[in-house]
Amino acid sequence: MNSNKNKVFQLELKWHPVAASVLLALPIVAHSAEINIKNGVVYTAGNVPVININKANDKGLSHNVYDNLNVDKNGLIFNNSMTESNTVLAGKIQGNSNLTSGTAKVILNEVTSKNASAINGMMEVAGDKADLIIANPNGITVNGGGAINTSKLTLTTGTPDIQNDQLAGYSVNGGTITLGKLNNASPTEILSRNVVVTDKVTANELNVVAGNNYVNAAGQVTGSVTAAGTRNANSIDVAALGGMYANKINLVSTESGVGVRNQGIIAGGINGVNIDANGQLLNNTARIESSGQINIKTNGALSNVTGDITSVGLC
Fold it and tell me: pTM for the whole thing?
């Protein structure tokens, strides 16, 4: 066992046209039975639900509030087009009449009930590309999910903080995000108190921030918040069958004494891997590799028994 302290290795009444309950656990047969809309428009194109997102404000933010937000294997489309558009999931769809003052740059989807979200299919932004955010303090589970036509995908158990009609950041005090299969071609953010990886996660860039944090809209920790709920022994936990694959990987665990455990593979590209743990880093019988630089900082033990940490680009 290698044990090192502080070791650095260089290798609103809410008015939302889409305040919706999207219940997609069953095949869509009777559409009204599976989709319960508080105030807005959800319809289907083939078997794919289409959400006409809320009107974007003058800063380009479309804020949509849900009781339930789940995605089944058929996927889900967020309609960010003022006119008819072609989609990958459902072909041609009609324009979104809510977008009277232009399309959204940020599509914020916030769950305000006590129900967790399951994302088991692809989520597509129709029309103009935008940041897509799923915020659910109750937890998010992904298995076969991902995003199409997004500038950035953010999954968070934080509560969104909106200031001056813009998304300022998130207060993340609890919750768990469990990542099974996730595939996303755009930058991907995972912001939660606990993050568990059970299968292959692939992204262009991957930023995972765990702990009770205030995280700004750029994905940076700028403060702490009062913690709530369960704290895992390892706030970022990659199972033996799990893996992270991205051109750039950034893993941050901020709670004191809570670390990162990798039992699978963390594989970065030319832009490297950065791990910053305010606790231990366990990489026993596992691999951390990159064709770029690997930077590791821990405030606890580094255990790498029969594990492998390799910066291919520096060999």
Answer: 0.88
Task: Give the model confidence (pLDDT) of 239-287 as tens digits.
Answer: 999 999 999 999 999 999 999 999 999 999 999 999 999 999 999 999 9
CB 40 within 8 A of CB 16: yes
> How far is 76 from 146, CA to CA, in rounded Å?
10
- Burial code of 157-190, b = ≥16 C-beta within 10 A, e = fewer? bbbbebeeeebebbbbbbbbbbbbebbbebbbbb
CATH number of 8-314: 2.160.20.10
Q: Are 51 and 77 in contact (CB under 8 A)?
A: yes
Q: What is the pLDDT of residues 130-171, one digit of tens each?
A: 999 999 999 999 999 999 999 999 999 999 999 999 999 999
Q: Are 104 and 130 in contact (CB under 8 A)?
A: yes
Amino acid at 199: D
> Is 255:233 a contact under the CB 8 Å cutoff?
no
**Rounded to the nearest 5 degrees, what angle is found at the Cα of 217, between the Cα atoms of 231 and 201?**
60
